[in-house]
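Example 3.2
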Amino acid sequence: MSWKIILIGICAFLIACVAAATGWQTHQQREANRKVEYVIPQGTIQRVAAGQPLDVLPSTITMTLGLRDILVIRNDDQQAVQIGPYKIEPGQTFQQQFFNVGTFDLMCTIHADARMRVVVVRSS
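Structure, written as C-alpha cells:
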C-alpha cells in the first residue's frame, strides 16, 4: 500500500472524528435545559394586600419549547402563593416544564389582577 493512500485514510478518519464530536456537542447543547427563574421575596404578599406596586413576576412570561425551558419560582416569602393550580408554600420551589406550544392563563396571587400568562413558543 502506498503512503498516499494511508495518509488519505488517516485524514478521512480524523475529519470524521471531528465531525462526530461537533455533532455530539451541538446535540448536547440542544438537549440542555434553560431555567427561567424568579424569586418571590419576603413581604411580597403583604405588599400585594396593601396595594403596593410589585415587580416580582412579569404578567407575561415567554418560554421556548426548543430550548426545553423550565419555569422556576422560589417562594422566599413567609406566606404561601398560588400560581395556577399550585400552592407554593414558604421556602418551596415550583418547577414547570412546558411540552406544548400555546398560551396559558393562570391565576396568580402575586399580581393585582390575580392573573399571569405563560406563552410557549417554538425556537427559531
